[in-house]
Amino acid sequence: SYVLTQPPSVSVAPGQTARITCGGNNIGSKSVHWYQQKPGQAPVLVVYDDSDRPSGIPERFSGSNSGNTATLTISRVEAGDEADYYCQVWDSSSDLLFGGGTKLTVL
Amino acid sequence: QVQLQESGPGLVKPSETLSLTCAVSGYSISSGYYWGWIRQPPGKGLEWIGSIYHSGSTYYNPSLKSRVTISVDTSKNQFSLKLSSVTAADTAVYYCARMVGEDCSGGSCYYYYYMDVWGKGTTVTVSS
Asked: Edge to edge, what strands does the sheet with A18-23 contain?
C-alpha cells in the first residue's frame, strides 16, 4: 500500500521559514493536503490540493508538490505556528492516507 | 457555518462494540459530500476509519474494514460509526469530519478527497 513519510520533527527560529516534507512514490501525481493540529485540538486544514489555502488561513502557509516530495512551507514563522502537521492523500485504491506527522518547534 | 459534534460512550469493554454518532449542523447531509471518521490513539498520528455518502455508499480503511460499519440517518442529519470486537488498541480520540474533493468537470471524475471541517473529537477508552 502507499506510504507517506514525514520527518518526525522540524525546528525553526521565529521569523524564519519552515519547510515540512512529505515523501511518497510519485506523490507529484497526487493531490496533497496538509493539516495543523495543536495540542488537545482537532486538526485544521491549512493547504489543500497541493497549494490552495482555505479561507482564513494566512498567506504565510503555502504548499508545493513535485516528483517524490510534497512540501508545506511556513514563512515568517510565529510562536503560534508550533503544532503537529500532517500530510494526506487519497490513494487510487480508495484509501485515505495520512503521513506520520511532523512536530514543528519554534525555538 | 458547518459544525460537527461527536457523541457516544467514553468507555467500552474489550470485545464489545464501540458506537459513536456525529451530528451535523449548518449543512444538510442530503445535499452531498462524504462524511467520515478519523481516529488518533494517544500520542500517535491520525488514522482514517471510513466515510459515507448520503446515499449510503461507503469507503472503508482496508485494515479496519472487517470490523467497521458506518451508517447515515438523513432525517436526523447525522451519521454513525460502529467498531466491533474492540481491544485496547482501539483507545483513541475519534473525530468526525466532512470529506470533500471531487472534480467531475472534464467529463470524467477526479477524486482527491480531504477533510475540510472537523468535529472537536471524543475520547474513547477500551478497558474492562
From this structure: A18-23, A69-74, A61-66
Distance separating alpha carbons of residues B30 and B72, to the nearest angstrom: 10
Who contacts B65 (Cβ-Cβ below 8 Å, separation ≥6)?
B50
Q: Are A97 and B115 in contact (CB under 8 A)?
A: no
Q: Is the pLDDT of residue B83 over 90?
A: yes
Q: Is the pLDDT of residue B97 over 90?
A: yes
Tens of pLDDT, residues A14-39: 999 999 999 999 999 999 999 999 99
The sign of the torsion formed by the CA atoms of A98, A104, B2, B5 equals positive
Q: Is B50 helix (H, G, I), strand (E, B) or coil?
A: strand
Nearest CA-CA partner of B72 in B30, B27, B9, B119: B30
Within 8 A of A30 by CB-CB distance, chain B residues are 112
CA distance B85 to A56: 41
Nearest CA in chain A to B114: A33
Does residue B108 have a pLDDT over 90?
A: no
* All cell numbers assigned to B102: 471531487
The pLDDT score that the predictor gives to residue B113 is 96
Contact between chains at B114 and A45 (C-beta distance less than 8 A): yes
